Amino acid sequence: MPNKKYGGKVMNYYCNPINVPYRYQFNMDPRSDGKLQIDREAADPSMILFQGKYYMFVSMNLSVWVSEDMAHWEAHRLPENLPLYDYAPDVRVVGEYVYFSASKKGEVCNFYRTKDIINGPYEEIPGTFDFWDPNLFCDDDSRIYFYWGCSNITPLWGVELEPETMRPKTERIVLIEGDSYERGYERMGVDNCEFPRSEEEVEQMFQGFLKQSGTPVEQLPQQYIPQIRGMFTRRPFIEGPWMSKHDGKYYLQYACPGAEYNVYADGVYVGDSPLGPFTLAANNPYSYHPGGFMPGAGHGSTMRDKNGNLWHTSTMRISVNHQFERRVGIWPAGFDDEGELFCNQNYGDWPVAVDENGSDPWREPQWYLLNYKKPVTASSCAEGSEPGMAVNEDAKTWWRAASAERGQWLAVDLEKEMDVRAVQINFADDQLPIASPGKIQGSLTQPRYIEERDHVTRWILEGSLDGTDYFVIEDKSEAMTDLPHDLIVREEGIRMRYVKLTILQIPYDVTPCISGLRVFGIGDGEKPQVPGYSAHRSEDRLDLLVDVDNTADATGYNILWGHAADKLYHSYQVYQGDGAQTYKRIGALVKAQDYFVRVDAFNENGITHGKATKL
């Protein structure tokens, strides 16, 4: 993806999930009855700018991702003395050092610091307490604060630390607790559909668990009993804190309600001091990406780039092969004139242009999805995994070839000649039939082996005007990289009607699967007409209920809402349903907040804005 000039500026492009080598996990989850669950995972990203480069630390990847432009990332193995099997690595720049910590609930966690992220050494600072989902924050006066929490039975805490020893200087303070009855976005379930269970229901399910497992309660480790009961409560996980400071205000961000849901989000509270008290911001959740190809935007970090532009990175969800089958996304962010933290996740998994000199966080996509539910053919397919599943904009389904024979192919017909600018190739995994290549290790509650070997993914991407004579767009037949979400950009555009992917080699030589062969560009037709819609709130004020009048010229709709007509900071991208209307229930409202709503229509030619109305 070479840099190009656009409007006098150098541009780079990325497309969520970001294009990095996500490592395989061989999970021996205690809840899987001894079944090995294999998936790729990366989550809980901490992104920093250090000495002119961007660094991203993520869970369970043994590596740090490094970039000079936020579009192209390379993975570098981290030193072995770091706790690489601990979740939610946190990194912060403090003076000339980068500080690192990670989570191990029930065990004392150490801190580490270095002046050289890739090569080390990492100096170990012995810890004095256990924590989960840590976040370190250095204020302008060099005082150090620390935040942590990851549970649906305990809150987020904060404390001030002694800078040299990293020992607490103060007692820990409760900062944030969940409330699903006041904040709809903290409810669990698909589209925030589940309220917490009653104590009677939880007790009944807990007793059922004991009976099924054949384990008397007296034999359970006492420290695990609250966690086991917590699995049945349907109370939200309040986790993943991250502190930012802007114009003298402190923005304590947090994730909820659970990583396996499409509505995994980041909320934010605001205070006048690092340890509060904090007040819920008007714009919540500020990071929320429940629709599109791959949803989820929770548990992440917020960072300013070399030019002062704000970016937010968070966790995206697949959760098919394992609950924590996850990826990483990046989105433009910012603070508005009233100090509200926002994140632009409109069309949040379409290509994004990154300027070298500055960025408008609300710039709309330049390229549009060209092949939603277009005709697809393939060399073969397994029953129930037809080629159409590669163009339905759902990362939880995929085309699977009928065999692992080299040269399996997938081809999409755009139905007419079009101006193609980018293709994202999304590989999927489907119950891989292999044993763990290494010893299962990690914690008692989440034992696993993380693949240490570097694999390759090889293919050839071709285009054609007539479906017979093909030309090569990109040849990765000799690639030494393993990129399951590769993005190919041709910024100046290529005219074609057919796009064909031929798969040559993938990790473990298993049967190939494609969850998304996604083609982006610029159509030569008309944008859709302004959509008609109706919207109202549920009686409990937590749900937004929208009916959109379908039109023949729309591919789908982007439903936007916010606390002011000019602050429609939240969105839910949906594709047009069958029949006369597309209905959507959005369960992310805050009971005490008033809202405005707008519905935009999109197709392969562009985006048409609707009219904002007050709910």
Overview of this structure, please?
The protein is mainly beta and 615 residues long. Strands 27, 28, 29, 30, 33, 34, 35 and 36 form an eight-stranded antiparallel beta sheet that branches. Strands 15-18-19-20-21 form a five-stranded antiparallel beta sheet, with no helix packed on it. Helix content is 3%, strand content 42%.
DSSP strand content = 35-45%
Structural class: mainly beta
Helicity level: under 10%
Number of strand segments: 44
Can you give the mean pLDDT? 95
Summarize the biggest pleated sheet. 8 strands, antiparallel
The total of helices stands at: 2
Measured on Cα atoms, how large is the radius of gyration?
A: 24 Å
- Which residues form runs of ≥5 with pLDDT under 50? 1-8
Shape: globular
Amino- and carboxy-terminal Cα gap: 44 Å
